[in-house]
Specification:
globular, alpha+beta, Alpha-Beta Plaits
Length: 96
């Protein structure tokens, strides 16, 4: 089993609207991509300086499914928008 976690820091311009839009776009992927077993998207309420704005927690059966997700057209459309509205992101991938 593969866990894929990404955290995003959003740009200040239209921040709240963009966070909500990204959450919706990501959650819409669950029924569109084979191999994506589980997805949880969370908007952070913590205001600490080290806090990130949004996180995504996904589960895949294996690395091949994660790689398929990474290059899937529907995922790439969402990634394109995310790159426009975020400052940066951090990722962790691990097996359990």
């Amino acid at each position: 089993m593969i866990k894929h976690i990404v955290m995003f820091e959003f740009k200040k311009e239209n921040k709240e609207q963009n966070i909500l839009k990204v959450k919706e776009l990501l959650e819409n992927l669950i029924d569109k991509i084979d191999g994506l077993k589980q997805m949880e998207v969370g908007i952070n309420f913590d205001t600490a300086p080290r806090a990130m704005d949004l996180s995504i927690y996904t589960t895949f059966e294996n690395k091949e499914d994660l790689n398929t997700y990474a290059v899937h057209l529907e995922h790439l459309k969402v990634v394109s928008f995310i790159k426009e509205v975020t400052e940066f992101s951090k990722v962790v991938d691990y097996t359990i």
